[in-house]
Specification:
Largest sheet: 4 strands, antiparallel
Number of helices: 6
Shape: globular
Strand order of the largest sheet: 1-6-7-5
Strand content: 15-25%
Mean pLDDT: 93
Oligomer: single chain
Distance between the termini: 26 Å
Bound molecules: zinc ion
Low-confidence stretches: 64-68
Radius of gyration: 20 Å
Structural class: alpha+beta
């Protein structure tokens, strides 16, 4: 499951390669769009929205008052990285460093090729109906619409929900994955299964979520501990049985949640988190 900072970085990379460029070749290797050809379209923007990537295109080039200037006529190439998905950028003719059978989408310009490997989702929709894809998302931690008060109100709307699951629910706030849900719980000193309504000072939790993801959005490698390379970059995530970096107690882990679509692995320090 991607974290919002990964999607933000992927968007920046795609933007650098594709923005305002004319697509010379497209290849959608998903059945519903296998025959779609967007060559000749211009990329008008690349936008991360929570964990969703939106590559907007319009017919024709941008230099005349053509269809490209009418946002309603555009299309959006929507992808979601899910577990393993990644967009890679290559110079045209450069050998892909991942197997071609894993490619789901290929977008080429005159000089560059963007390849989406193992995307959890790839579809093309009218830009005018993007809301059907991302309209359900809560305030985006890395977006222009970030609204801490609304995120807090959303989180507290279901006070019995375990805090990790509440943080992961993209309808509450968009951008956090399991790494942040666990690390934020550690940093605020409560176990990830604590009901959100019982968390002391949840406003500080939201503020910390924003600060942590903002600090990490431009780092090549996410790091929540601030420790140098070679040392653990997470306090608890993925550290079952290892010593807590603060107190030395062994980190514990378990599944959280009861319904199959809402279950996560969690980690915590039994001494530091109550
Ligand atoms: Zn500890």
């Amino acid at each position: 499951m991607p974290e919002g900072d990964s999607v933000y970085k992927a968007a920046a990379k795609l933007r650098a390669a594709l923005d305002q460029q004319v697509l010379t070749r497209t290849d959608f290797r998903v059945p519903a769009f296998a025959t779609l050809d967007l060559s000749g379209h211009t990329v008008t923007s690349v936008v991360p929205r929570g964990k969703h990537l939106l590559i907007r295109v319009a017919e024709g080039s941008d230099d005349a008052a053509g269809p490209a200037s009418e946002p309603d006529s555009g299309l959006t190439i929507h992808s979601h990285l899910k577990m393993e998905g990644v967009w890679k950028i290559y110079a045209n003719g450069e050998r892909w460093r991942k197997p071609s059978y894993l490619a789901r989408g290929v977008l080429s310009t005159a000089t560059k090729t963007a390849v989406g490997f193992e995307l959890g989702l790839l579809e093309v929709v009218p830009t005018a109906s993007e809301d059907s894809i991302v309209g359900h998302l809560g305030p985006d931690l890395l977006g222009p619409d970030w609204d801490a008060d609304l995120a807090l109100a959303n989180l507290l709307s279901d006070p019995a929900r375990p805090v990790a699951l509440a943080l992961l629910d993209q309808r509450n706030l968009a951008g956090l994955g399991n790494v942040y849900a666990n690390e934020l719980s550690f940093l605020r000193g409560f176990r990830p299964d604590t009901p959100i309504g019982e968390v002391a000072d949840p406003k500080r939790l939201v503020a910390l979520a924003f600060k942590a993801i903002m600090v990490n959005k431009d780092r090549p490698i996410r790091n929540l501990t601030g420790l140098p390379r070679g040392k653990p970059r997470y306090w608890v995530h993925g550290r079952r049985g290892e010593a807590c970096l603060r107190c030395g107690t062994r980190i514990e882990s378990d599944h959280l949640g009861t319904c199959p679509t809402d279950t996560r692995f969690t980690w915590w320090c039994p001494s530091c988190q109550k």
